Backbone:
């Protein structure tokens, strides 16, 4: 297929784009290269790859690129609550309005696979799994814009969305500020971390499983379209303290302490069911343990914290 990926040089796109090309698709990436990354240079030798430096809010540009696409994956976003709080106008126009524009410009035959976040669940009910039918109660501007963007995509006949768990794993455009990535970085370089509200729970998924997930969605689009799917590891609804214990198994000198006072500005706390996605035949391949081992090797290479969104 001819696929347009906005934000395709970001953390997820830098892993997804090569995977799409390897699967035989033609891929055009639209990206501003905000972080001055060179993460797609290894794709330039492939004839099926094209790249455009530009803004996903530029309607004439997007319209011209859409004319040559069968399918769109809108990855372009200001990702994470801190980044959105720093630039609320950008969050509104990139995370939401650019997606609404895509939905307006796309023909009824063009497919849109939309990544959103399961942070839309906000604070879940204690010990109760969040399913795709659970109420959405985002507690950040980031979560709110993603929830509304998902609504726009699902109103189309040819739309589908993936509510991604907290992502972890190495990428050519690395993000150290994600929870698992951050804790492993601290374990490798600082050998210690202070945790606020360590009982808060999240679900997790490896970045390479996300690339496989999009390929799965493309291959099974007709049977999966029109719905949203939670995407995470069934055995990884873990608290921060449980996550640190897993890291300590591989890095025994790692020390973690829960602060007796103070609080985490990120109040998300929920556990998630991924049953609907599993019923489509998708199975994740990367466990948290395997991803932690990968990150430990990666952080022997990366020794500073410039690889983050904020």
Residues:
């Amino acid at each position: 297929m001819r696929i347009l990926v906005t934000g395709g040089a970001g953390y997820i796109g830098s892993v997804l784009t090569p995977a799409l090309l390897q699967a035989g698709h033609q891929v055009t990436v639209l990206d501003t290269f905000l972080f001055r990354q060179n993460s797609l240079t290894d794709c330039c030798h492939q004839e099926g790859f094209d790249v455009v430096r530009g803004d996903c809010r530029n309607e004439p540009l997007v319209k011209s690129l859409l004319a040559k696409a069968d399918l769109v994956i809108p990855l372009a976003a200001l990702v994470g609550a801190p980044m959105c709080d720093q630039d609320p106008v950008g969050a509104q126009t990139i995370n939401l309005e650019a997606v609404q524009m895509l939905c307006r410009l796309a023909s009824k035959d063009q497919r849109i696979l939309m990544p959103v976040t399961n942070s839309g669940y906000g604070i879940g009910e204690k010990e109760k799994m969040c399913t795709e039918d659970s109420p959405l109660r985002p507690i950040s501007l980031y979560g709110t814009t993603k929830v509304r963007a998902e609504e726009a995509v699902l109103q189309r006949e040819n739309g589908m969305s993936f509510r991604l768990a907290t992502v972890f794993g190495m990428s050519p455009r690395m993000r150290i500020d994600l929870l698992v990535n951050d804790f492993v970085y601290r374990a490798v370089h600082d050998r210690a971390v202070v945790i606020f509200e360590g009982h808060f729970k999240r679900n997790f998924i490896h970045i390479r499983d996300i690339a496989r997930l999009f390929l799965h969605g493309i291959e099974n689009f007709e049977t999966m379209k029109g719905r949203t799917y939670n995407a995470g590891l069934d055995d990884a609804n873990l608290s921060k303290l449980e996550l640190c214990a897993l890291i300590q198994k591989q890095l025994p000198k790692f020390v973690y302490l829960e602060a007796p006072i103070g609080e985490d500005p990120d109040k998300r706390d929920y556990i998630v069911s991924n049953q609907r996605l599993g019923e489509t035949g998708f199975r994740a391949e990367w466990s948290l343990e395997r991803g932690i081992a990968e990150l430990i090797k990666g952080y022997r290479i990366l020794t500073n914290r410039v690889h983050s969104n904020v």
Observations:
- The longest helix spans residues 88-105.
- Residues 24 and 50 are 14 Å apart (CA to CA).
